[in-house]
Specification:
There is one protein chain. The protein is mostly helical. The protein contains five helices and no strands. It is elongated and about 45 Å long. The model has no long low-confidence stretch (mean pLDDT about 95).
């Protein structure tokens, strides 16, 4: 059974934002993850007030590219940094899921 839009939204809203780690590249993905999170906050207006206004940016492509960068960092990470990589990747995947389901929930017309 797949997650519904509201399941994914609820999970995202209750999931803590991951840390940035110590290497510079994880700090950069942390900053980009914060930017992606900001794009996805447009979903809150939809849930709370019924306002469907997607970001003018290609949020899903941005998240996909970010996940690829995080994956590459994971190939050379270990210990605590690998934990950060996994948390960032999971959070980015959740953002992509929420935003994709939001786009699918577009009102007709």
């Amino acid at each position: 059974m797949a997650l519904t839009f509201m399941d994914a939204y609820t999970l995202w809203r209750r999931t803590p934002f991951p840390s940035g780690g110590t290497p510079q590249d994880l700090k950069l993905t942390y900053a980009d993850l914060a930017e992606a999170d900001e794009y996805v906050t447009t979903v809150i207006r939809f849930v709370e007030r019924g306002i469907f206004k997607p970001s003018p940016s290609d949020v899903l492509s941005f998240i996909d590219e970010l996940m690829e960068r995080i994956d590459q960092i994971g190939l050379v990470s270990s210990g605590k940094d690998l934990e950060v990589v996994r948390a960032q990747h999971a959070y980015a995947a959740l953002l992509g899921l929420v935003y994709g389901l939001f786009l699918e929930a577009a009102p007709p017309g």
